[in-house]
Design brief:
The complex is a heterodimer of chains A (290) and B (236). By secondary structure, chain A is an all-alpha fold. Chain A has 11 helices and 2 strands; from the N terminus they run ααααββααααααα. Chain A has a domain at 26-116 and 137-217. Chain A has a two-stranded antiparallel ribbon. In chain A, a hairpin with a 2-residue loop joins strand 1 (129-132) and strand 2 (135-138). In chain A, 49% of the residues are buried. Chain B has a 6-stranded mixed sheet, with helices on both faces. Chain B has a 4-stranded antiparallel sheet with strand order 2-1-4-5, covered by helices on one side. The relative contact order of chain B is 0.18. Classes of the chains: A mainly alpha (290), B alpha/beta (236).
Chain lengths: 290, 236
């Protein structure tokens, strides 16, 4: 194997990994702040892709508009899902798991009903290659990666520096103490859930032209996002980013050296290995006892 | 009508009653202590006032507003700040961020900055630790930060739960010195404290809570001379 081939695979792994990180970070955020697992994350991702399809293909509007519409619409769906079905059962983790699993199926059936079950394509929003050093890179993948980086940067800035962001971190660290500070915890949960959903939709939009769009398309990204969140360490957004990039590289390498069909198996293998060997993930802390 | 009034309050966790028919009042500008052994229900009483637990019976009034049906975040807005047992800071956030969160419900930026300056006069150590994560502070510093965070809400009533818990005697004393100055600033204080020898001298009136019932109340001067209190709580 030549160094330039390896470098090429590394670059394309990192580029796709940035989008995997964006897809997973919403799941990670919801877990960290609300301590629940949102199994509907993949279905919300799927909805994002369908909204982009409608706005670009059916309405003929430019891609950036489609992305904004998809992100806003899925944010709203996320808020409604949290308010209607997650909040009433939030203190029973298993119930949240089951109810969001059911919600994923409902959203999938709704997608079949509103659109149809057939495979769809979203046309590329940018075409052509750019050269990075000696390397030819698909321009669309590069732009998608850069947008993902910017979006993740904005998320971090919001959480680190705004009043609401600080309140969200307080809720993540001690929900009851947050109540005593006058923080409307339930409202922030709704916001966090909506934000998590919106981030999934953003990833789906940016990845849209790379994959087929169909109602069951969300399950694979869901599994991958679980693997990334666990690999990075639950509740650590930084860990999710590193793990996302790593997962991109692992998948690209697996695809090249073994087979494209084995990438999901590789994802699953990483998930199992990390749960067996280091359940707290790369950056996770063991749950703090009070 | 009293500033804070708790009437015949009962709180149950499942079938076990933590409080049974407890009444208490605090007047504006006053400092009142609740003493009693571990598990007597002191923390539950403060949690009921803050809206963290719903009473099974009885009612709670603050400045003519009924509290026992309000959510905690609205109770904070009425002017009640609660420095909880075990501190409950955000360990992975800085001292400054914890203080900012104390003022979360306020919008008066200038006054917030002034209050922070005032708090640094009260607890100079916090100014030195401003950029440090709260989880890295010593126990005493964490307790100071807990009280400081509550003060950042600019409360009219301060609920203090076991501020001396787990602290060395000298640190306890510095916490209670700060408390004396907070009282001088005109903040009304309701203090729950196991250590009666610290609590009683710091307040004008006190209640003795045992197994969920109020067994005694009176001016702290009087309680300090009471035989039962002297034997049971002051170890004299």
């Amino acid at each position: 194997m030549t160094a330039s081939l390896f470098f090429g695979l590394l670059v394309s792994g990192v580029l796709i990994g940035g989008l995997y990180a964006l897809a997973a970070i919403g799941l990670s955020l919801i877990m960290g702040v609300m301590r629940v697992v949102n199994v509907a994350h993949g279905a919300l991702y799927m909805l994002g892709a369908f909204f982009v399809y409608t706005v670009t293909v059916q309405w003929g509007l430019p891609f950036p508009i489609a992305m904004v519409v998809a992100v806003a619409a899925v944010f709203a769906v996320g808020v409604v899902v949290e308010r209607l079905i997650v909040r009433p059962v939030r203190h029973e983790e298993v119930n949240v798991l089951i109810i969001t699993f059911a919600a994923a199926f409902v959203l999938e059936e709704l997608a079949k009903f509103i659109w149809n079950p057939r495979y769809k394509n979203i046309p590329p929003y940018i075409e052509g290659n750019v050269s990075v050093g000696a390397l030819q890179v698909d321009q669309q993948r590069l732009v998608a990666f850069l947008v993902a980086v910017v979006l993740i940067g904005i998320l971090f800035a919001l959480i680190r520096h705004t009043r609401t962001g600080k309140a969200i971190r307080m809720v993540a660290q001690d929900e009851e103490a947050a109540l005593l500070l006058g923080i409307h915890v339930e409202r922030l949960h709704m916001l966090t859930f909506g934000l998590g959903a919106a981030l999934a939709a953003a990833a789906a939009a940016l990845l849209g032209p790379l994959y087929l769009v169909y109602p069951a398309m969300g399950w694979n990204p869901l599994l991958r996002s679980f693997a990334i969140v666990i690999l990075g360490g639950m509740g650590s957004l930084e860990g999710t980013i590193v793990a996302g990039l790593l997962m991109g590289v692992i998948e690209v390498m697996t695809g090249y050296f073994i087979s494209d069909r084995m990438t999901t198996v590789a994802t699953f293998a990483v998930l199992v290995l990390i749960i067996f060997l280091r359940p707290t993930g790369l950056f996770g802390h063991p749950v703090e006892e009070r | 009508m009293s500033f804070l009034r708790v009437n015949a309050l009962s709180v149950a966790y499942g079938k076990a009653y933590a409080l049974r028919g407890v009444s208490l009042h605090v007047e504006e500008g006053e400092s009142v202590a609740i003493i009693g052994p571990n598990g007597a229900g002191k923390t539950t009483l403060l949690r009921a006032i803050s809206g963290l637990v719903r009473p099974a019976d009885g009612d709670i009034w603050f400045d003519n507003v009924r509290l026992d049906r309000l959510p905690p975040h609205e109770i904070v807005r009425l002017g009640i700040a609660h420095a909880p047992e075990h501190r409950r800071l955000a360990p992975q956030m800085t001292v400054l961020e914890n203080l900012e969160l104390g003022a979360y419900h306020r919008r008066d930026r200038k006054a917030i900055r002034q209050d922070m300056e005032h708090i640094f006069e009260l607890f100079p150590r916090l100014r030195e630790r401003l950029g440090q994560h709260a989880g890295t502070l010593s126990g005493g510093e964490q307790q100071m930060l807990t009280i400081a965070r509550a003060l950042m809400a600019r409360p009219r009533l301060l609920l203090l739960d076991e501020p001396s818990l787990g602290l060395a005697p000298l640190v306890k004393k510095s916490i209670f010195d700060a408390l004396a100055r907070i009282q001088q600033d005109g903040v009304t204080v309701l203090l729950a404290e196991q250590d009666a020898s610290l609590a009683l001298p710091a307040v004008s009136r006190a209640y003795v809570l045992e197994s969920g019932r109020m067994v005694m109340e009176g001016p702290s001067q009087m309680l300090r001379q009471n035989d039962y209190v002297r034997q049971t709580y002051l170890g004299l």
